[in-house]
Design brief:
With 139 residues, this protein is an alpha+beta fold. It has a domain at 55-138: SH3 type barrels. It has helices at residues 21-43, 55-68, 125-138; strands at 72-76, 79-80, 83-84, 88-96, 99-104, 109-113, 117-122.
């Protein structure tokens, strides 16, 4: 009694192998987890408080940025999760009451209360505008 051995292949039954597609969900979640960890690590980097400038010094630097269109970095006097927020980089675009309007690299305008500003320092104009132009071209 010889029995016939029948071999069925998944392809013959209509199964389509999706290859890497079936693993993409796991890779994406791993990737998302790695990105979250990286973001948390960069946010938890300790930002040292810079020297608190007087209102007169802040006003002078903001006015020069406004008139000369020079970019500056602003450190806010706000502590979040035990550390200072990253510097805001931009050019002063206007003033109203106790508010300063800063044009950011991505063309958005951010309104900052003057009382919240701790420190201002200049940014290298050539480097900032080069990054600014690169971002505006890619948009």
């Amino acid at each position: 009694m010889a029995q016939d051995i029948i071999k069925l292949s998944p392809d013959a039954l209509g199964y389509k192998d999706r290859g890497k597609m079936k693993w993409m969900g796991m890779m994406l979640s791993d990737h998302a987890e790695a990105l979250k960890k990286q973001k948390k690590d960069t946010q938890s980097a300790i930002i040292v408080p810079k020297e608190k400038l007087s209102l007169e010094e802040l006003s002078t630097l903001l006015y020069k940025s406004y008139t000369l269109q020079k970019p500056l970095a602003i450190q806010l006097n706000i502590v979040k999760d035990g550390g200072y927020l990253p510097d805001i980089e931009g050019v002063a675009k206007g003033f109203k009451d106790d508010q300063v309007y800063i044009k950011l690299r991505d063309h958005r305008t951010r309104q900052i209360p003057l009382d919240d500003i701790r420190h201002i320092h200049w940014i290298d104009s050539a480097q900032w505008f080069e990054k600014y132009q690169r971002q505006s071209v890619s948009v």
